[in-house]
Amino acid sequence: MQPIDTGKAYDQITHLWQREGFDRTNGIAQHQKALSYVKNRGLALDVGCGCTGRFIDLMLDHDFTPLGIDISDKMLQLAADRHPDIQFIKTDICQWQSPDKFDFISAWDSIWHVPMVQQAALMTKLMSLLNDGGVLIFSAGGLEESQEHTDDAMGVEVYYSTLGFKKNLALIEECGCVCHYVERELHCYFIVQKLS
């Protein structure tokens, strides 16, 4: 599946994030931990921002100027309805060229939909978009080695891939960043900071 296909799939399942009972705290504690490493409060980027706005709210609460990007038309429309004063862009993160650098980047439950052949280049790009001292939080499949698969657990077929734990850590170091924290249990995620 290509990112455009993922966007179309997510267009069909936005109701999952709008339903009563959706856990709006999902990822918040992890983001709070990541934010504790941030030195400056300039621009922030929410990659695969979705429609809930919970990370945009968190960025605003911490005095960032956020930007949201996503590949799903419907997710972006709902996000813009919730936050009409925030800029949202429909784009494939792999193709997007940013004129700006960021002090904080969130890629929560999003970049694992990027094709395996583009994963390393995307991770390199995200870390290159950090200002010195900037922080990236991203979730990834908690597997030791690279893997890709599709499934329809959410009701439509969606593609997933991960570089794997070892390759992610090696790439973080190659990109001049340090990994402050990794959790590999219930929800595998990394907190990464660009060295000055």
Mean pLDDT value? 95
Largest β-sheet summary = 7 strands, mixed
Widest sheet: strand order?
3-2-1-4-5-9-8
Provide the CATH architecture: 3-Layer(aba) Sandwich
CATH domain fold name? Rossmann fold
CATH class group: Alpha Beta
H/E series? HHHEHEHEEHEEEHEE
Radius of gyration: 16 Å
Helix run count:
7
Silhouette: globular
Helix content: 25-40%
What quaternary form is this? single chain
| Corresponding CATH superfamily | Vaccinia Virus protein VP39
Query: How much beta, percentage-wise?
Result: 25-35%
Number of structurally distinct domains? 1
Determine the structural class based on helices, strands and strand pairing.
alpha/beta
Would you write up a description of this structure?
This protein has 7 helices and 9 strands, in the order αααβαβαββαβββαββ. With 196 residues, the chain is of the alpha/beta class. It has a single domain, classed as Rossmann fold, CATH 3.40.50.150. Strands 3-2-1-4-5-9-8 form a 7-stranded mixed sheet, with helices on both faces. Strands 6-7 form a two-stranded antiparallel sheet. The protein starts with a helix and ends with a strand. The model has no long low-confidence stretch (mean pLDDT 95).
Outline:
The chain has 196 residues and is of the alpha/beta class.
Features:
196 residues, alpha/beta, Rossmann fold, seven-stranded mixed β-sheet, two-stranded antiparallel ribbon
